[in-house]
Amino acid sequence: MASPSKTAPNRGVIHPFDLKYGTDTSGYLGPEELLNGRPSDAHNYGYSAIAPSVFYEACRRWHETLPTVSGRTEAYSLIDVGAGKGRALLLASELPFRRIVGVELSEDLMRVAQKNVARWKQAGRVRTKAKVRVLQADVLKFRWPRGPLLVYLYNPFACSLVAQMAERLASVATSGGSRLVDMLYVNPTCADTLARQGLFTRLWTARIEMSEADRKADPYGTTSDLVSAYRLK
After folding, report:
1. Residue 115: closest CA among 71, 83, 76, 78
2. How many Å apart are CA 116 and CA 112, to the nearest integer?
3. Global model pTM greater than 0.85
4. Domain range annotation of the chain
5. Can you give the chain as a three-state secondary structure string?
6. If pLDDT is split at 50, 70 and 90, which confidence band does 42 have?
7. What are 165-191's pLDDT values in tens digits?
8. In the list 105, 159, 180, 198, which could disulfide-bond 190, CB 3.0-4.6 Å?
């Protein structure tokens, strides 16, 4: 296993986002730093946060694909699977989602995310009327809210869990939930798994360039992220 310093040579850089708002979302934590004694430890891919410029552009591109009948962000709940320290939740709260929920298995990260949400609210940054919540939960046991749903993932865990999550989403939709279930998947390492399952249609895949500020603060030293959007068939 590569050391955290080799995987993320800029792991100690504080993002301007945190410097500006007093939040704590920067850095990188390797899988070995997030062990909790559960079987799921073997599937954990570690923590890092989405570049704000990538998140906003991905949401913009996703919005352009919405069907006419539900073509409003306001109709959707955003569920951040593997929410980590919660940066995506904070960014999502500046968009008009109906509901914003972070699902995070690590209790330590969940607590950090909750503190970040509280600071964000105190700073008056929440622009949506939706409640922003962070839950400590296993995504395979999470009770999905009624759709429409936008499920957001920043490459949080192994493909076996991604496959099980997709199956649960399809099952919930079939058993009475809305069939309007989309995914925004950043660094989609399990794209082949989703394709083999055949439950979701890939809408688009794009390499999204980061802003200059995001590039300088990226823990991996990269300048862009690959993002795919999916829709439940």
Report:
1. 83
2. 6
3. yes
4. 14-232
5. CCCHHHHCCCCCCCCHHHHHHCCCCCCEECHHHCCCCCHHHHHECCEECCCHHHHHHHHHHHHCCCCHHHCCHHHCEEEEECCCCCHHHHHHCCCCCCEEEEEECCHHHHHHHHHHHHHHHHCCCCCCCCCEEEEECCCCCCCCCCCCEEEEEECCECHHHHHHHHHHHHHHHHCCCCCCEEEEEECCCCHHHHHHHCCEEEEEEEEEECCHHHHHHCCCCCCEEEEEEEEEC
6. low
7. 999 999 988 887 678 999 999 999 999
8. 159
Q: What is the pLDDT of residue 71?
A: 67
> Would you tell me which CATH number, out of the four given (3.30.420.40, 3.40.50.20, 3.40.50.150, 1.10.8.60), belongs to the domain 14-232?
3.40.50.150
Please give the average per-residue pLDDT across 38-44, as a whole number: 63
